[in-house]
């Protein structure tokens, strides 16, 4: 089998972070989401992976490389415009050939691996398998309706009146018959070739068999800032904590905290689950649960809780606790006590600022 990761799209719901970074490269628990997807596919025994890239292709290529660090071979498949998931399959035909493959959205985070699913599909005679998850807001997803025997009855892309609460998670397995399906369908009202229409085409033809799998663990589509924070919290709880940096005698770091190599904790309290990145300094500060602080960050005389802080940022002398924040690269947050008191800031397009 081969792996196909979709890593195009502009990530508009994550502006302003994604003005300057591909959404798939934003880290949860200090590891880019795309890296987690690559590792999950590799751990399922697949060593040939194609990545469909768009406008952020150069950044994806630079970050991922040829796959050597994971022991896999990476190929890149440029997509000129975001014309749908089925279009991504269509343009990947030369890479995929006649092999069975798993297609994984590069911005999804899911509990557990996919090894059992891959093994099951690889040894079956099925033509496709889709992963489903019960969600409270199915109108925002592709939705599957199952019949009384648990077989797929129909699939609908973002229906106004969903027939079920089973959303397509963004993990699909196909054999080469999917190319007949993507060639047969027409663009939707969105102007895209929808993967739901391609799967529906397979389901409607009796000679093909597509099976559903309902995932019972957690799953996050990291499309919005709140989703990133939720995914970060879930993944932090899965980490095996370790202390590779230094923690001085005046600090209190609990057993659920990871301190990466070169990091320093000085006269501070850090409560887990949380992770402190390489060469980051936490001084006279409090870091609360569900916080990920990336590499080369300075936190001085400040408090954070349930935050994601990206690399090379500085948070200094902030008297109010920062909570539920995503702070981008090279950001600087500083408070001084001089009078007259006033707010002074530079905010990029689409920024959001909440004041206590």
Count of distinct structural domains: 2
Strand content: 25-35%
Oligomeric state? single chain
Report the end-to-end length measured between terminal Cα atoms.
Answer: 53 Å
Q: What is the CATH homologous superfamily assignment of the largest domain?
A: Spore Coat Polysaccharide Biosynthesis Protein SpsA, Chain A
- Helical element count? 8
> Compute the gyration radius: what is it?
22 Å
Instruction: Write the CATH fold name of the largest domain.
Output: Spore Coat Polysaccharide Biosynthesis Protein SpsA, Chain A
Strand segment tally: 29
Low-pLDDT segments: none
CATH architectural arrangement of the largest domain: Alpha-Beta Complex
Q: Kindly report the average pLDDT value.
A: 88
User: How would you sum up the major sheet?
Assistant: 9 strands, mixed
Report the top-level CATH class of the largest domain.
Alpha Beta
Question: Helix- and strand-based class?
Answer: alpha/beta
Work out the helicity level: 10-25%
**What sort of overall outline do the alpha carbons produce when their principal axes are compared?**
elongated
